[in-house]
Amino acid sequence: MSIFTSDSSVFQRFTRASVELLSSMRFAIALLTIISIASMIGTVIKQSEPYANYVNQFGPFWAEIFNGLGLFAVYTAWWFLLILAFLVVSVSFCVVRNAPKMLADVRAWKEHVQEGGLRALHHHFEYSTKLDHPAAASVIADRLVKDGYSVKTLIADDHSKVMAKKGAASKWGYIFAHSAIVFICLGGLLDGDLFTRGQIWFGGKSILPANTQGMLISDIPSEHKLSASNPSYRANIFVPEGATSATALLSATSGSIIQELPFSVSLKKFHVEYYSTGMPKLFMSEVLIKDLDTGKEVEAKIKVNEPLIHRGVAIYQSSFEDGGSKLKLRAYPIQGSIDSVKSSFIVSGEVGQSTALKSNNGTSYSLEFVGFRPTNVENIANASGEVDVRGVATQKADAGLAQAFNNRLGSGAKTSKTADLKNVGPSVQYKLRDASGQAREFSNYMQPLFLNGMPMFMLGVRESAAEEFKYLRIPADDNFSLNEWLTLRTLLQDQGARQRAVQRFTQVLSQQTGFGSSPQAVSQLRESAIRSIELFAGASEFAIKQAEETGVSPGGFVALGSFIDRAVPEVEREKAAEVILKVLNGVVWELWQEARAQLNLPAAKQDEKSQRFIQAATSALSDANFYPAPLTFQLDSFEEVKASVFQVTRSPGKNMVYFGCLLLVLGIFAMFYLPERRIWVRSLGNGKNLFAMSTSRKTLDFEKEFNKYQEDLNHGN
Fold first, then answer.
1. HSE-up (13 A, CA, CB side) for residue 599
2. Are the C-beta atoms of 459 and 647 separated by less than 8 Å?
3. Does the N-terminal or the C-terminal CB of the chain have fewer CB atoms within 10 Å?
4. What is the pLDDT of residues 27-41, one digit of tens each?
């Protein structure tokens, strides 16, 4: 019996201590602090992204730690939901424990307070009156009623008491504010992933791994699907034009889970309008909603901030994407013989699909159609004069004149114009994946962009989605094609073509300058021309050795600059650079004439237009060493298919949250703007009365009111 009593006593003490802890204000504040910190983390870190994105951002080590802590899905993490539940319990205990006392205090007049207690208040004074105590009590009671107080009067034979109070609603403010926290947290729990997590933890449901996504809905096992009766969810539904979907996707870091809907959504037409900056001004979906139980169909229009609510599910217009546009790309071999340049070919596909390819050297690739944009409003200028971030040639030479060459001739990634926003037309994004699975992403514009009055094709490339695209700029020919530049690049790689160009350049320059009669001068000129073009083409021993040392492709201005820095004394480098540039321009000009001849075009004239083309082409030839692809693809034609992304939500706790917010506003207003005030007036005999006043919040208004009573009563008013 003693043991039982002892165990019962321990249990009772533990229960009391637990209730005391849960209902304490310090415990609730600690929970609120943790929730605030967690919310800040959830705001800084993008939530529910694919795990690979976090690996790219934080690295594999920290990504694994953060994922284990649930920081990539803070608001659905078990510890966050547990803290939220504890906060609900804690504040509920606090309300249940203190509300009766507060309500009793609101109703109480506190007539038991004696003279000593009144004198202990900071705000009190004595005043004299010629009236007897019943009459004096009646006068002060009338005054307090006029001032908005509720008044109670007690008259005895030898004394009287007047008790007054107002602002008792401030106590309700505390109750409302604390109750609001309970309602808001409960609504958050109901509208969060609590039901989904519960089905995963206890209902046999599981997340569909990311590497198995892309399956047909009918082929997905039932353990990866949530029924249409799921009481709470927030999911996304992707619907292309002309397509229908009755399932939504709940995203998770490690994959997703399918949410079945009680209706189907068919996208009849998608409308989008743009501002001049290229930002969407309006996008709207014309949809057909079909109830799967009754077969009833409803046509509707869904706009941003104008959701459609059907069977308790709100359908929001979230965003829009490509819905599988049909594309035709023309492939140009960026390397190879002249025959391969002439024999460009068409590759067809749809956004989201892929096709197998082989380059002219036999390497296998997978071409993945990533995206298509019919409209691109771009700032096509760089007003700072610095190297444009879109330049492909980001590698720097060792030192010295390599940068000077780049600055002198200009990179294919430079322009001196100020900011200029223009719609530059459609663009296509694709990936080239090699046999080992490594892929680079490319972004090419369908039409050439006019930069400084010259048409330029933009060929973008990046190593990963975390990087910005960097663009190779290639001048378009008179037919707005790449043929002349591609043929020029092929000839630059042909040793025989380089020798023929050097020979023609030497002959022309000898005739123009008149030193053709000097065999030694002609020989020196030929050697300089051969050295310049071989370095630029990356075919010299120096360029090849430098490429092996630096790990970048040989040739271009980098090879020329490095050679001058190592072979020419510093005082003579500027003069040597000017000579080599003139020689190089002359040889490249002759290569261009041969390229035009092979394309059955007349020889170019020595005018400003031709000089601008050959300068831009030379810069592009140098930058192309950093373009990591054997093929480039230009958008030939397209058939656009739009798609809407809807967010579908079932939120049983939404009204609870709204009600909690209303209570919170009322509670804060009552606590801060309706402070409780109490007044006691007690007769002391001999015509003297004791006036005492208290408040729950001392303010300047309270001090003014107290001083007003003191002044009026002491002067007999």
1. 27
2. no
3. N
4. 888 998 999 999 899
